[in-house]
Amino acid sequence: MVQLQAMKPTETVSLAENLERVRARMQAAQRRAGRTGEVTLVAVTKTVPGERIAEAYRAGVRDFGESRVQEFEEKCRQLVLPSAVWHLVGHLQSNKARRAAELFSCIDSLDSLRLAEKLSAAASAAERRLAVLIQVDLGEEATRFGVPPDELLTLVEQVAALEGLSVRGLMTIPPYLEPAERARPFFRRLRELAEELSRRQIPGVEMAELSMGMSHDFEVAIEEGATHVRLGTALFGERPDG
What we know:
Strand order of the largest sheet: 7-6-5-4-3-2-1-8
CATH class: Alpha Beta
Oligomer: single chain
């Protein structure tokens, strides 16, 4: 098991300083937008070893995002982080839905009815209710996953009718754009879609969460209403994608 205290002081200071800087930038973005309330930092730990995850936990991070079920399954055997909340933020294949429903607290990348049905069956069998976010494809990129905006309402209504799932909001991954300001229309559109769904008052649907913004554009996302930002590089530095 990874021991939280078994970290080199220099490593702890480095990550802690990154975290402090990120939180300061998050708070500044909230002030610019006149927003109050908490924005959740989800530390994206794809390819990050267990020791570094434990270091982040000790520094105060509680929400973590993994992209691959198998990778997280291997890590969680080593980690004892009692109050950690684990988000699946990567694309989920339906044949891994059962295991994902057992391992994760939230599925932040739900994008099809077939996957929702698999997750619903797994969550119901485990006698639990699984929080999900619907991933929306706003960039119309062939390499991106997500439901198109014109199909979102239908999917939300279908998912809300399933047992074992709780629709908590939306997620998007816009194209990588520089400067980050160019991503603003995508974040604004996701907020507008969530507002439209909220007005419909669909039973079992609560548009409480907007997961949008990554290391290069999270400040713009917060200004447009993000409640969750997914940060990897800003905390852990550059990592291989492997």
